């Protein structure tokens, strides 16, 4: 089955399809190319923020580290004779200068806390707490930890347990003897302020979260649900920000930067982690893609409307020409094709079709004249053939009457006269009918039976014709007419001896693409088949073979001969009647 698509539908589909394809391609490009670029840009920005936080942490710890080294170099702290109050004043000024120091104290090598800010725990033996001993040899910075006892003294009203970073630096006198250790607890709130100072410019709706991991990977600053939990996240190489799957199953753009220290501060190996949900990071691309799809759908719809208008305009001349051809119908009328100049191609086609139709009209007029002339000539030929056959038939009748009855030659002439009469009837029918190519075989057999009744009058035998209307060519009608003539004459001769009464019946039936002709009599019978060796028998057998048919006999009641032939037997094998008759006569 061939799918028919109109020009209008084709243009609409093409324009709409182009719009949709462009929209889909643009959306895919945005999703892939622009998405990759946006991801890299966001990743670079996250890495930059993480680097800034790490750098500020290193610099801040360096400053606190430097604060202690500066304090340990002051004479008030170094001198063994300095009163406790004087040392406390120096330590208090340092805390006042940088309030993130939660506590600062001067500890003797024996573990005795001599002076402290706020006088907290002064005079207490802290030798059991080993963190201050780390500062005996060199300045020391410890990792973040909880200090429950100190927290109760410093932050009694605070619900969550505060955390601190330990710092310690040795104090030597003029001779280089260790006289004590200046130790400090730096509030971890300082790191939160560092983080806010860098990330405060990032809008909250972006979903960016920051974390600081200790050396062992424990979250020491970040979302409350993750603080204190270990995370196995390694620093990315270079400035790469990767998409990583986190323990909660969500994917985040993740940037990890490790602190490296600053100047003589060695650093603690903290890792600054910044993450942003992928869906929120790529939200601008998704929003832009949705806008492109929406605008693309609108553009496609607009293209469809434009295509409809354009297709209507383009196809109008073609539809006008089609209507003109349909109005002409199939009766041979010449269509009045409109001449259009809407656009070059339509004008060219219209002009070419008009010229072509004009040429066809002239050719049709000439052909009609030739056909009319040939028809008249063919009718005249059939008329002359019929007249000539009548003349021949008349001459044979004259010669037959000159011969005595019972003479063998008289019988042969009489048989030939019947055959010539049968062929003449066909030409007469063609001459008088409107169709010169086909013969109504049923009518021909009925006329043949009437002619045989006139030619061989017999009051005791009735010839009855029961035939369907069946059109066939003269090449098939001629041999079938001769076969019927021979079978009827044979029945008249042999089936009713001694004046016996009876009926000869000729039947013609059309069954699909085959014709069945039956000649039956209710006489004495034919003993299974026609007599062998006679002219009639030879002629019937030859004609049946020539038309590609079959003949069968039934002798149960009288004699019944049935001839079956294909209706198109004359298509591939024309029947040469003259040669057959000549052969039969010669036999």
How many H/I helices? 14
- Biggest β-sheet: count, sense, barrel? 5 strands, antiparallel
Strand order of the largest sheet: 2-1-5-4-3
Helix proportion range: 40-55%
Structural class: alpha+beta
Radius of gyration: 62 Å
Strand content: 15-25%
Dominant shape = rod-shaped
Q: Which segments are poorly predicted (pLDDT under 50) over 5 or more consecutive residues? A: 571-587
The chain-level mean pLDDT equals 79
Distance between the termini: 59 Å
The tally of strands reads 17
What keyword list fits this structure?
587 residues, alpha+beta, five-stranded antiparallel sheet, 14 helices, 17 strands, 51% helix
Structure notes:
- Residues 571-587 have low confidence and may be disordered.
- Helix content is 51%, strand content 19%.
- The radius of gyration is 62 Å and the shape is rod-shaped.
- Strand 16 and strand 17 (559-566) form a beta hairpin.
- The longest helix is centred in the first third of the chain and has 66 residues, at 7-72.
- The chain has 14 helices and 17 strands.
- Helix 10 packs parallel to helix 11 and helix 11 (474-494) packs antiparallel against helix 12 (535-546).
- The strands form four sheets. The chain has a five-stranded antiparallel sheet. The chain has a five-stranded antiparallel sheet with strand order 7-6-10-9-8.
- The chain is α+β, with helices and mostly antiparallel strands.
């Amino acid at each position: 089955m061939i799918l028919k698509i109109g020009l209008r539908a084709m243009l609409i589909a093409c324009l709409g399809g182009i719009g949709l394809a462009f929209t889909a391609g643009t959306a895919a490009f945005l999703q892939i190319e622009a998405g990759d670029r946006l991801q890299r840009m966001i990743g670079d920005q996250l890495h930059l923020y993480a680097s800034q936080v790490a750098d500020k942490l290193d610099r801040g710890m360096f400053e606190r580290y430097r604060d202690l080294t500066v304090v340990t170099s002051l004479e008030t702290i170094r001198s063994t004779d300095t009163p406790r109050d004087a040392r406390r004043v120096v330590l208090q000024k340092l805390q006042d200068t940088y309030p993130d120091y939660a506590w600062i104290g001067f500890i003797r090598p024996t573990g005795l806390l001599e002076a402290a800010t706020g006088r907290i725990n002064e005079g207490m033996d802290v030798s059991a707490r080993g963190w201050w001993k780390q500062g005996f040899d060199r300045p020391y910075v410890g990792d973040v930890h909880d200090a429950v006892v100190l927290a109760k003294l410093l932050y009694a009203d605070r619900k969550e347990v505060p955390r601190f970073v330990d710092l310690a630096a040795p104090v030597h006198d003029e001779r280089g003897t260790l006289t004590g250790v200046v130790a400090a607890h730096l509030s971890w709130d300082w790191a939160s302020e560092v983080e806010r100072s860098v990330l405060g410019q990032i809008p909250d709706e972006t979903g960016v979260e920051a974390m600081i991991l200790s050396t062992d990977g424990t979250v020491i600053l970040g979302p409350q649900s993750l603080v204190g939990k270990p995370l196995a996240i390694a620093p990315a190489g270079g400035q790469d920000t990767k998409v990583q799957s986190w323990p909660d199953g969500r994917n985040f753009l993740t940037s990890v930067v490790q602190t490296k220290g600053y100047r003589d501060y060695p650093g603690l190996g903290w890792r600054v982690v910044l993450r942003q949900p992928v869906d929120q990071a790529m939200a601008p691309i998704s929003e832009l893609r949705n806008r492109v799809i929406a605008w693309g759908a609108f553009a496609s719809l607009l293209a469809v409307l434009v295509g409809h208008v354009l297709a209507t305009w383009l196809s109008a001349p073609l539809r006008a020409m089609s209507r003109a051809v349909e109005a002409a119908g199939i009766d041979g009328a010449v269509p009045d094709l409109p001449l259009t100049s809407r656009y070059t191609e339509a004008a060219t086609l219209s002009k070419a079709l008009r010229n072509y139709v004009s040429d066809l009209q002239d050719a049709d007029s000439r052909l009609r004249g030739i056909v009319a002339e040939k028809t008249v000539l063919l009718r005249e030929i059939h008329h002359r053939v019929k007249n000539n056959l009548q003349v021949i038939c008349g001459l044979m009748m004259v010669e037959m009457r000159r011969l005595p009855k019972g003479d063998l030659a008289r019988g042969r002439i009489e048989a030939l006269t019947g055959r010539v009469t049968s062929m003449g009837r066909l030409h007469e029918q063609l001459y008088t009918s409107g169709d010169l190519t086909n013969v109504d075989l049923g009518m021909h057999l009925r006329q043949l039976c009437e002619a045989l009744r006139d030619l061989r009058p017999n009051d005791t035998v009735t010839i009855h014709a029961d035939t369907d209307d069946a059109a066939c060519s003269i090449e098939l009608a001629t041999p079938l007419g001769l076969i019927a003539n021979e079978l009827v004459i044979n029945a008249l001769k042999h089936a009713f001896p001694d004046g016996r009464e009876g009926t000869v019946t000729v039947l013609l039936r059309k069954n699909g693409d085959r014709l069945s002709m039956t000649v039956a009599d209710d006489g004495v019978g034919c003993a299974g088949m026609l007599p062998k060796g006679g002219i009639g028998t030879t002629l019937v057998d030859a004609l049946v073979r020539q038309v590609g048919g079959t003949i069968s006999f039934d002798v149960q009641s009288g004699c019944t001969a049935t001839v079956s032939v294909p209706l198109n037997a004359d298509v591939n094998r024309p029947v040469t009647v003259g040669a057959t008759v000549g052969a039969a006569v010669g036999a």
